[in-house]
Amino acid sequence: MKKIYALVIGILIMTNLRGQNWIPKGEGKLFDGVAVMSMSLVGDSVIWMTTSSWAVVYAQMPVPLTHLIRVMRSVDAGETWQSLSIPESIGRISFDILGISRDTAWITTQDIESGRGRALMKTVDGGDTWKQIFLHRSAGGYLRAFDQQHLICQSNKYVSTSSDGGLTWSSDTLTLYDQDEYNLLVSGSNMASVIGDTVWVGTDKGRVFRTTNFGTSHSITQATPPGYTILCISFENHLQGMLMYYYDNFTKYGLMRTFDGGATWENTPKIPASFISCNLTHVKGAPGTYILTPDSYSTNQLYFYTKNFGETWTTGGIIAGANCNSVQFHSPETGWLSAGFFDNDSVRYTGYKWASDLFSSLKNPETPALTFEIFPNPARNILQYSSPDLLQIEHDVSVLHPDGRIIISRKTSSNELDISALPNGLYFLQVATDKVRGLQEFIKTSD
After folding, report:
1. CATH topology of domain 2-361
2. Counting Cβ atoms within 10 Å, is residue 315 exposed (0-12), middle (13-18) or buried (19+)?
3. What tens digit of pLDDT does each residue of 180-201 get?
4. Which region, left, alpha or beta, applies to residue 421 given φ > 0 means left and ψ of -120 to 50 means alpha?
5. What 3-state class would DSSP assign to 209?
């Protein structure tokens, strides 16, 4: 009996120690009754968060004309925080934020039909002042950056893109969406995932919307059974990603994964035994590693992780006192978990900082990214590609099928490839030297 008692105590101690991997930061900086809806990390030190009244968000009624969005900002890895009100946003709430630098950030805003409209707002002075940049129905959901010039925002069937850093925008209404189909916004920065020129986002009908070529080509796939809602989605590369869904009114949950860029989905072999409502993200730089953290609907404070793409899951521990929402990792060493809803009796932390080397041994080798252009795209017979790093240099070039199979592989010093024998469809071109490596998507066509 003593041995069993000692074993139980040991397990509890180890669980609590693992829970201390998340260190609370920013005590007392958040206002009562607000939730951090979304978060954006810029490097290791800069964190942007957007907050709104949880009562307003939960009610899904027109936003009161007195409601004010506040942004939280830290430039010293969470040691100190600024709480910045946005008078320009009055009468709106915000579901997403995109940090560009320590001084520049964007937020999406919407009024839930109160009359103020949906708009993208931007600051270039660290959040002291904000300017409305783009007023459109697409500006009320998520906002992602493919790169410094290409941006996309979407709210349900409405989508807009920019190719000049947000100076101008073009908009579209998606016929792929059903009239009553929606993206779930409460997971904030975990509602949509961007890799290269591709974004994935889930819907309340269990479908995954995928847009490629910087938001110009669209497709939608039934991932879960109809009637399920996708809450979070995260990709680690163009092919492998994972999503979390719920059904029966937030009482049952599940996880799915894809090996082919979201064309097909399967349930993960295992799910955590005590898995309730969580947010999900890939740990950047650690292949196959994903983490589940408690959200504002969770009835426990456990977090879980997998290092083998969902084959098995480990209980990380208890995040004591946590009421959380979005989770993001900039690297295996740098991660943040934002605050969720707080009532007047809660201990109010702005967020929880990852403080562990648990994922560090899984880091990708430090291979710098190769940036290159593909043309034409779509292509019929000859695919050309160019980069200053490839001038007359011997390199490896491969064509990958969306399921990961290598279709073509060769070593060359030429910057063109004959693809005439390929069937029509979507492929990936991988180009690598001994110093850099890059991956781009292209379409083979006979038109």
Report:
1. Methylamine Dehydrogenase; Chain H (2.130.10)
2. middle
3. 999 988 888 999 999 988 999 9
4. alpha
5. strand
